[in-house]
Design brief:
Layout (H helix, E strand, L loop, with lengths): L2 H48 L5 H4 L18
């Protein structure tokens, strides 16, 4: 075999191996991210369920303690 052809085959093989290793690395990183996101989502759901009684968006705001209620009406002269 010609030395140039052998070199090209070797470079091609090394490039192929490098691409395969890179794809395996990306796959493993993505798998870790999916696991972390699902765990975070599970924790968020659990937190919301534990604190739903104190959530004013779910229970409403008492009219006497509503900080957003207008205290005075605007009167135009």
């Amino acid at each position: 075999m010609c030395p140039v052809l052998c070199t090209k085959l070797l470079v091609s093989h090394n490039l192929e191996q490098s691409i395969i290793l890179s794809l395996h690395y990306v796959y493993h990183i993505m798998h870790m991210l999916v696991c972390q996101i699902s765990a975070a989502a599970e924790q968020l759901v659990q937190y919301c369920q534990e604190h739903r009684r104190a959530d004013p968006l779910l229970t409403g705001i008492n009219a006497s303690s509503n900080p957003f209620k207008d205290k005075k009406t605007c009167v135009l002269l």
